[in-house]
Amino acid sequence: MTGAAGLLADGLWRRASYTADDLAALEEACLREAEALGLHPPAVVFHLVPAEVVYDVSARGLPGRYSHWRFGQIYEQMKRDHDAGRARIYELVVNTRPAHAYLLEGNSLVAQLLVIAHVLGHAVVFERSRYFEPADKGFLTRVRAAADRIDRYMSEHGRRVVEDFLDDCQALATTVPLSQLGERYVEDEPVDEPRPYDELFPEEVAARRRRVEEERARLRRRFPRHPERDVLGFVMQHARYLEDWQRDVIGIVREEQRYFAPQLTTKLIHEGMAMWTHNAILQRLRLDSADFVEYQRLNAAVAQPHHFQVNPYNLGWLLMREIERIATEPSDEERERWQWAGEVDPVEQLLAVVEGYDDAALVAEFVTERVCEEAKLYVWAERQQPHGVAITSRDVEEVRAALVRGHVNAGLPVVEIVDADGSGRGELLLEHRVEGVGLDPEYAKGTLLHLASLWGNAVEIATLRSADGVAVRYRATPGSATVAELRQAEPPPSPA
Amino acid sequence: MPIARDSDLPADRGRRDARHHHERVRSQINDYLRKRIGEEDIVTAGPDKRLRVPVKGEKRYRFIFDRGAAGGAGQGDGEVGAGVPTDDPAAAAGGGEGEVLYEVEVDMAEVEETLFAELGLPRLKPKRVLDIAAPDITFDDVARKGPLLDKKATLRENLLRNAKRGRLHLGGLEKEDLRYRSYREAPSPRTQAVVLCLMDVSGSMGYLHKRIARLFFYWTVRFLRHQYTRVEVVFVGHTSEAFELSEQEFFTRKESGGTIVSSAFRLAREIQRERYPEAAWNVYVLYTSDGDNLASDNLPTTELIADLLTRVNLVGYLEIGRGAVMWGGPKLSTALEAAALDGLVVARAADEREIWGALKVIFARDGVEEAVA
Fold it and tell me: Fewer Cβ atoms within 10 A, N terminus or C terminus of chain B?
C-alpha cells in the first residue's frame, strides 16, 4: 500500500519522522473523504512552519501584521507553553482564496491529520457562510504594506507613541460594524403634507409649515445627521487634530477589524463545523487503534469545558450533532417543528445552517433540552453573600436566553455617536443603547480615555449604572487621566 | 494543494515584539528584581538563566457589558445555587482577558543591563597618568557591527538601498542596512578607579549578616566588572586585625575573633598609599559590618576615615541588621553619622530586600540622585 492508505494502515504513531509528502498524502485523503461527505471544501494551502512562526501568526491573527508589544506578550505566553510541552494545538486559517493554514513542525502525525481535517471544516464555513466574503487577493499584501508603514511611523515618531495610538484605535475597534447586513435606525424628517380644507385656515397652515421647517432645519444641523455606530470610521473622517499618519493607522485598524468582525459572530458555527468535519473525516479514515486513542485524547483536550464560560468547540460541536440527529432521527415533536426533520440529508442541512445562521440564531433555534443536558449548560449570576458567582438555573429556556444575550452582536453593547458638536464646542456624545444591562464602568471609562485622545476634545457616553439602575454619563477630556461620572441631566463641570 | 515548506515570514518577529513588551513593563521588572536581588536563585543564576517576573498587564479597554450584572451561560457540573467565592466575578467567569497578573521571562544579561544602568561611580574624576597613555574614545565613526545602533546612518543606508531598487522611501529594514556607532581612539588622560572592599568577618557577624554583606559585595563586583573595564577591586577582611584576601577567600572565609574596625581602615590606608596614589587613581572604600565595634575604637575609626577622605573619592559604609547592639554602646553608624564627614556615605540594610536600595545610596549616579524606594 502506498500514500495515505499505507501510512494509516501501518499506524501513524510508528512514524518517528515524516516528510511534507506524507502530509500531502494525508491532506489528499482528508479532501477525498470531505468530498465523499458532500462538504466540497475550497482549496487550502498548508504551511509547515516552526513554532516561532506558528505562534507569531497566532498572536497577530494575520500573517505579517504590524508590530506591537501586545502581540509579543501573547507570543511569549504561547511559546513558553509550547516549550514546556503544555501547548494545545493551534489551528489558524486565513480567509483568502486559496485559504492559508499553518501546521506546526514537530507535532505528531495524528495531530497534523486532525488539524488538516479541522481546517477543512473552517474553509467550508468561509466558503458557504453568507457572513463571509473572502478577503480579496490583495489583502495579505496590504496587511504587510500596512506593517511597513507602521514601522516607518515608529521610526519617525517613536515606537511608544505609535503603539499607544494603536491602543487608542484598538479600544474602539469593536465599534466597527460587525457585518454589512446590520440594519440602522433612521429617523424620518417631518414632512408638511397638505390636508383637506387647508385653504380655509391660512394662518394655521403657515404656522404648521414654520414648525415643520424649523424641525427639519434642526435635524439637518445635527451632526452626524443620523446616529453613527462606526465610531472609528467617524473619528478617522472628522477628528480635527489628527495627523496624516494617524488617520492612516486608524484606517489600517479598521480594515483589519472588518476582516475579523464576522468571525466574532460565528465562533460557534466555525468551531462547531470544524469539530464536526474533522470527526466525520477521521471516523472514515479508519485509524489504527493507537492512533485512534491519540486522536480521542486530542479531541477531548480541545472540547474540554471550563467553568463559568462556554467552550465554543464543545457547544458548537454538540449543536452540529443535534442538527444532524434532528435531520436523521427526529421525534414527532421535532417533525412538527422543523419541516426538514427526518426528510433531508444531514450534511445538506448542516451546510444550510452554516450558510444562513450566525451564533445568536444558532443557539436560539438549536439549544434543545438534549443539548442543554449534554453540554451541562447553566446560567450563572453574581451574588452578594458570600461574594462570588453562582449557578442560578439549568432551565433550558433560561439557558437559551442567556446564550442568545451572549451572542447577539457578538455579545457586545451597541454604542452610537449621537452628536459630534456637543455644547457647540465640538464635543463627541455617545449613547449606549441600553437593553437591561449597562456598560462595565471601569471599561467604559478606560475606553473613553482612548476615545478622548483620538477625538482631541471632550467625549461623553450615556449608559446605565447597573448597580442601581440610574442613568449616568461618563465624561473624559483629552490629557486628563480621570473620567467624571455625571447624572443624566447634570451639566458638565465648567472648565476651570 | 501541496504542503508548502516555506513561509516567507521572518521567524524572529514574535521574539522582537516580546522584547518590546519587556521594554513596556521594564519598570515593573526592575522593581521586582530590585526587591529580589538578595535571593539565592538570582545570585546563583548564570547569564543564561531565565527568571520569571510577575507583571500587571495594561488592560485592553473596550465597551463591554457590566460583567457581574450581566451574568451569563456556563458549562459544567454543579447544583443550582452552587458557586465559587471570588473577589472578581469577571475572573471567575473567564472574562478577564490579558489584564490580570501574568509572568514574563527575562534572562540575567537583560536584568543586569537594565539594573546596572541605575548605578554609577560618584565623584569620579579624570586622573592624569603620564606613563599610561590610555586612548580616549570618541564615538564619531560608523561601523557595520556593534552594540550602539546609529539610527540616522541606518535610515540613510535603508533609503540608499531602496533607491537603488527604484523605490524612494524608507522601510523594510534589512540587516545589511544596520549601522552602528563606532569609535576612534586618541591618547588622553585616563580615568581609573579602585574599589577597596572591607568587611567584618568576625564572630559577631551572624550568618544572615555575612550573607547580606557578601550579597552586597557580590553585586558591587558584578556591577563594576560589568560597567567599567578599568576598575580594580581589593578585598580586605578584619576581626581584631585586618588582612588582604583574594576574591575567593573574601566570599568564603570564616573567622573568629574580636572586632576592631580601625584595623581595616588602617590597612586600607596602607594599600592606598602604596599601590593606588590619589594622583593617578579614583579610590572608593566600602565597608560593611553589623555595626559592632569596640566602643573605644569608634573615635580612631572616625579619624582614620577623615584622613582617608583627604585622598579618596568616597568612603561608603553599609550597616546590616536593625536594633540595638547586643553589648550596648552606640552603633558604628551613629558614630560615623555624628562625624558628618564630606564624602562619607552611610547606608543600611535590614534584609536582602534592602540591598538594592543600599547600592543605590552608595553608587549614586552623579546628577541623577533618585529617591530610594
Answer: C
